[in-house]
């Protein structure tokens, strides 16, 4: 049980840290490139998976925090969800960075 607590806390903190690092280029003040950046998916339903990932992350984070990371299965679900969310966020960041470069 202790391993899942440590893993959940480390992966969650790493996700928030990577999110802050990803926001640095967008907050530096050069917003001229960002004003003309439009991400429009071909099919609107393709946004269902990222929305489910984000909602699942928020729900698991709240549940694990309320239970103080004492449930092993919820901790591992949070770790898995966060890793998939980080992979999705990295690919999205790379795509946006390519568009503005």
Automatic annotation (TrEMBL):
Bilayer-crossing regions? 45-64, 76-96
Q: Which domain of life is it from?
A: Bacteria
Q: Mind listing the UniProt keywords for this protein, alphabetically? A: Membrane, Transmembrane, Transmembrane helix
Tagged with keyword Transmembrane? yes
Q: Does the keyword Transmembrane apply?
A: yes
Q: What is this protein called?
A: Cation transport ATPase
Query: From which organism does this entry originate?
Result: Mucilaginibacter phyllosphaerae
The uppermost taxa in this organism's lineage are:
Bacteria, Pseudomonadati, Bacteroidota, Sphingobacteriia, Sphingobacteriales
């Amino acid at each position: 049980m202790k391993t899942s607590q440590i893993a959940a806390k480390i992966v969650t903190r790493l996700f928030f840290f990577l999110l802050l690092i990803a926001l640095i280029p967008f907050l530096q003040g050069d917003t001229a490139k960002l004003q003309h950046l439009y991400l429009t998916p071909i099919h609107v339903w393709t946004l269902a998976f990222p929305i489910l990932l984000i909602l699942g992350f928020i729900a698991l984070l709240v549940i694990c925090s309320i239970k103080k990371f004492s449930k092993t299965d919820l901790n591992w679900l949070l770790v898995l969800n966060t890793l998939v969310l980080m992979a999705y966020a990295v690919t999205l960041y790379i795509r946006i960075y390519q568009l503005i470069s």
